[in-house]
From TrEMBL:
<protein>
    <recommendedName>
        <fullName>Transporter</fullName>
    </recommendedName>
</protein>
<keyword id="KW-0998">Cell outer membrane</keyword>
<keyword id="KW-0813">Transport</keyword>
<dbReference type="GO" id="GO:0015562">
    <property type="term" value="F:efflux transmembrane transporter activity"/>
</dbReference>
<comment type="similarity">
    <text>Belongs to the outer membrane factor (OMF) (TC 1.B.17) family.</text>
</comment>
<dbReference type="GO" id="GO:1990281">
    <property type="term" value="C:efflux pump complex"/>
</dbReference>
<keyword id="KW-0175">Coiled coil</keyword>
<keyword id="KW-0472">Membrane</keyword>
<dbReference type="InterPro" id="IPR003423">
    <property type="entry name" value="OMP_efflux"/>
</dbReference>
<keyword id="KW-1134">Transmembrane beta strand</keyword>
<feature type="coiled-coil region">
    <location>
        <begin position="251"/>
        <end position="278"/>
    </location>
</feature>
<dbReference type="GO" id="GO:0009279">
    <property type="term" value="C:cell outer membrane"/>
</dbReference>
<dbReference type="Pfam" id="PF02321">
    <property type="entry name" value="OEP"/>
</dbReference>
<keyword id="KW-0812">Transmembrane</keyword>
<dbReference type="GO" id="GO:0015288">
    <property type="term" value="F:porin activity"/>
</dbReference>
<dbReference type="InterPro" id="IPR051906">
    <property type="entry name" value="TolC-like"/>
</dbReference>
Amino acid sequence: MNIVSKIIAVICLLLANDAFSQKKWTLEECVAYAIDNNVSIGQTELDNKLAEIDKKDAFGSFLPNVNANASHSWNRGLNTNITTGILENQTTQFTSMGASLGVDIFKGMQNQNRFRKAKLALISSQYQHLKMEEDVALNVVNAYLQVLFNKEAVKVQKQQFETDSLQLVRSEVLVDAGMIPRGDLFDIKATIATDKQRIIEAQYALIISKMSLAQLLQMKEFKDFDIADVAYEFQVNSILLEGPESIFGKAKNERTELKIAENNVRIAEKEIEIAKGAYLPTLSGFYGFSSRVSYAKIPDGQGGLKNPPPFFEQFNLYKGHNFGFQLSVPIFNGFSTRNNVSRSKVNLDKSKLTLEQTELDLERNIYTAYSDAKGALETYMATKEMLKAREEAFRYTKERYENGMATGFDYNQSQTLLVNIQSDLLRTKYDYLFRTKILEFYFGIPIIKREVLDGQGTD
């Protein structure tokens, strides 16, 4: 079996499987599914959860630290009786318990600034999640349009095959009538064979593009995957009337990557304030409670021993409290605080440069995207005019061929040029659709209006 036969067999098998496929996925469903199942988006969701935990940690620094302790021990041999203070050779039991509380009263505003930084970090994490969703959606749109293009390309090739098959029948009639030489039939048959090859290539490209889209959606079962046959009619998008300056002005307030960079500058500013807080004194308060219970017998005052007081009586008798304040004034710490402040300032400068570069990149990308979209429009319009001229040229060559005034070679060459222009028109059409989607994306128009879906596909 040669390679062409193998390709045909594979395509027939996949197309046979396709026949059992009932779901026809829309663009909105593809984007929604990708957002719900993409691994990278799932990782950013976990990052959001970690940022939430960090925020709770920062809030916890405002709360007091409360600890409790308890112990029970056995003392055997010569040891001090904790009740009488006398060394005795005996076995005793001893229970102690206590609790302590500490709270920061002033810590150079570090706790407050850490909490503010944690809130900003959570916002940045949410922006990162949104940015990942936008990137995935844009990739899905591109892959989806590629599938639509390949579907239409298959239709064009099949239509051309049908036209050539009819032309073969007419040519046989013209040969029998002596209007064209019999050798021209071989040219027509060669053209039909070429049409079959192009259909195979177009179907193979369609299968590959559908597999690529399904894998982008991270589907485990994608053999039966197919999309809805949506006809996107060409129309001039009003986004081109805005101009790159207007789009950039809107994007500065809308684009997620810019918001991330701006928020990172604010985080760096908080880091400086946290580092500077180490220059200031810290004041904390503390409170402690403790008590003990001994199970050793105690002197009765008459030279003998008696049992110790009851548990709770001892607990109340031996209880104690300690409380107060602790002030710590930093004097010298090996330049650690100063270096931390300097390091934070450097990070702030880096964040500002990143913000500046992000804005420059955004401006350049928008101007490039606008030029690409406008160029795609002009290319489409020019290709459309070329198609009209090529259709007239083919019609004229066809008439001449049927009247015996043109050869089969002339007919085939004119037809090949026509098919190429038809394919170019499809390509420029979907290229224009994607370019304008990118411009709308920068302008703040969502790629799709995501709604709650009842299922993963439509029948």
